[in-house]
Amino acid sequence: MGRIKAVLFDIDGTLLTEMPLIQLFLPQVYEKLAKKLGINKEEARNMFISEIFSRRDTYDWHDWNFFFELFGLEMHYEDLLRRYPHKLHVYPDTIPTLEWLRESGYSLGVVTSGPEYQRLKLKLAGLDGYFDVVVTREDVKAIKPEPKIFLYALEKLGVEPKEAAFVGDSLSQDVYGAKHVGMLSIWINREGEPGHHLADYEIRTLHELRKILGVVE
User: What pLDDT score does 1 carry?
Assistant: First the structure.
């Protein structure tokens, strides 16, 4: 592994969590769906959730608007983000780590399987200014772990895979995808889930990146 010049990140579960926002709007979804279909909220919930799980890890699964449209609900995730930006919780280790990386001269990027509203999410969370490149699925019509989405970001940054590290919370999308194209793969395991030794490194907080980058330099 040569000198690492760039560090790229996933968004959700890595830099921030949107769970407070999801917990806020899902009851609204169930209520609207129940009224629309003439069923109770529990049935509406089961219907909506089962549809989400049935499409797990597909292109559409990464877009809340797909599911709103599928059920004919007049809701837009962009509106929810703008209405409740305080429900996006940036992890406390995110900004100090990004500032340290920038000061240390690393190029920074984001690769997300989500749609264009991921850019808005970064902006509302006050994180967009840290990144040289942000790549969404719309840029390449592909999602992680497909090589194309990683390689596009690396090309934009002007670095080779071996010169870049990728940090993400998903073993199947982030770690596998990054490792497959030759990047240094770092699994951020915030919840302490059992590992599978797939990643080159496993961390519990982003602060640990200092140590890892010091080792691989």
Answer: 43
